[in-house]
Amino acid sequence: MGTTRPPRNTEPPPFASHLSPFLLMTSHAATIDHHHDPSTSTGIPNKKLLMWAFLASDCMFFGTLISTHLIYRLHPPAGGKVPTQVFDIQLTSFSTFILLMSSLMMALAVNAIQKGNVKSCRWSLLTTIFFGTIFLGCQVFEFNNFVYEHDMTISNSLLGTTFFTLTGTHGCHVAIGVLWLGLMYVRSFKLAHGPGGAGAWMKNLLHLVALFGGIVLTTKVVLGLVWSLQDFQGHSMATFASREFLSIAGALVALGGMFWFARPAGEVEFNEKHAIDVESMGLYWHFVDIVWIVIFTAVYLLEYL
Questions:
Q1: Would the pTM count as exceeding 0.85?
Q2: What CATH number has the domain bearing residue 299?
Q3: Rounded CA gap, 180 and 152, in Å?
Q4: Do 160 and 280 share a domain, yes or no?
């Protein structure tokens, strides 16, 4: 007589229900290649290829502006402004360091979303936005100082013309990058199965307004505080509270609204599939930082050699 084999247990182990989501997520993430796209003829994702093409053209544009500035600096007109008497190298060095740190945070954001860590990506994007705004605030302070303290404008001197054209163009690129970062941050809160239509658009718009309202008003308050400490253009600590009361109140309201919109509301659509979008934005931001390193060296540091 043959022995009767016991029936096979086809039920999964009790811990399988806890492991299966993790295993599915891991296997799903492993199928995503963030550096190669077999569906394109080049093997490079189309979005990344388009960004590289744009950056190549922008590289030539900035090369033209930097070359123009250097050529005119080699043959300065008589009686022109002396750069070392106008520039504030300490302030510019600080803003350069801040912009370099923003590039680090942008790299961390790309790495986080490639691993599917949306929360970490959001914090890195916010920090990048914050650092970019500080850089723009330093640039606004520098431009005001050049115009009102040193009487250097874009039209009254050759140094002012080349300097404001070059650094102002770069500042516009930073501002566009900050806006793009804000849009990506707000996009990361889009619900996977939430209601669409006008209501969702209005919520995203209000979230974006709260984000940039808080950033702009906070920057204005900080600039007002710096000007008051330096007694710049009639500002003083005695009048700081009255001058900036509405800005302080508006910043608090905007920041409160930003945190209210950021509260958890369910599963979001934003995940590692959107890493190519964050990476394309990162390419733009790193390019802007590299261009500033060249500008800082060619426009500022060479004057002190």
A1: no
A2: 1.20.120.80
A3: 32
A4: yes
